[in-house]
């Protein structure tokens, strides 16, 4: 696995605000109209935006670039983040159900990052896994509109789970910003 040793020139596709990822009209996170009303729609909106941000940071990269690791001994890569989120979306469902936990997608500890290798089949599987696991977790939570409702064996509230999901995506999107900039110099929100 190659390391990020080159120092690409910083750049952005944006022309309106050159420190942004995309111009406002081209940014899928910009929505027409007002922000959502109510706590649940607001939380869902933030989650959607962070999910889009992660995908935007990965767009346009090939398998080698997506699998490129940051700095030793870290196994962090954009592809690893995609796989990590598929894994944690699945695990979050385990938090809110009373049944037997779903098995890990990629194996035990750090397998999501360790198995993030520069192979297009691995990349395609990561995107498919992420999309499937996000949809499954969203579907389960769609049946629980009361943010104070407590679910699963540990009785976690729907609100706490949604905020935790937003926090996890936001934290890793910050890492994705730096990973992307090291790969090809692209900067922005």
Automatic annotation (TrEMBL):
<protein>
    <submittedName>
        <fullName>DinB family protein</fullName>
    </submittedName>
</protein>
<dbReference type="InterPro" id="IPR007061">
    <property type="entry name" value="MST-like"/>
</dbReference>
<dbReference type="InterPro" id="IPR034660">
    <property type="entry name" value="DinB/YfiT-like"/>
</dbReference>
<dbReference type="Pfam" id="PF04978">
    <property type="entry name" value="MST"/>
</dbReference>
<feature type="region of interest" description="Disordered">
    <location>
        <begin position="1"/>
        <end position="42"/>
    </location>
</feature>
